[in-house]
């Protein structure tokens, strides 16, 4: 296996600007190079591809997501309240990485999110925090009993991709998209008597 090309922060930022400005399909290496302030030849010499840049940006976004989830996992409070906070964080991370998510969504299969096989679930690094909070909420009685593994996949996709769609396609403000999405997701899971 060959070494991964070295990508600096300026190139990451340039790729993000190009994806945001042109979309994944129209963000050519020439446009990425221009946004990053380097030549196309420099990218070629480094062995950098548009797909490779997107994959590395997706990995960075995934790392940020995992780190951002930690406070919701370790906070005090009910499982339902902590789940709501985790879903708010999911929306915050979607907003912070909207350009990357839209570029990933433009591809036929955003493999970074999916396990392999039929009826695959979302990969565990994205869903494990939600699974834990679903279990905590069921244990403390603030959330309905559900299959935590399957429901975590549904929640990640329901909240994350609905938020991205409402922001990009409907051009809703971040707060409106977050509030509307979370209201449906969280209140649908709260146990009777703990709904807001």
TrEMBL record:
UniProt xrefs under InterPro entries: Homeodomain-like_sf, HTH-type_TetR-like_transc_reg, HTH_TetR, Tet_transcr_reg_TetR-rel_C_sf
Domain named HTH tetR-type: residues: 5-65
Keywords: DNA-binding, Transcription, Transcription regulation
Any Pfam family hit: TetR_N
UniProt DNA-binding region: 28-47
Gene3D superfamilies: Homeodomain-like, Tetracycline Repressor, domain 2
GO molecular function annotations of the record: DNA-binding transcription factor activity; transcription cis-regulatory region binding
Name of the protein described by the UniProt record: Transcriptional regulator, TetR family
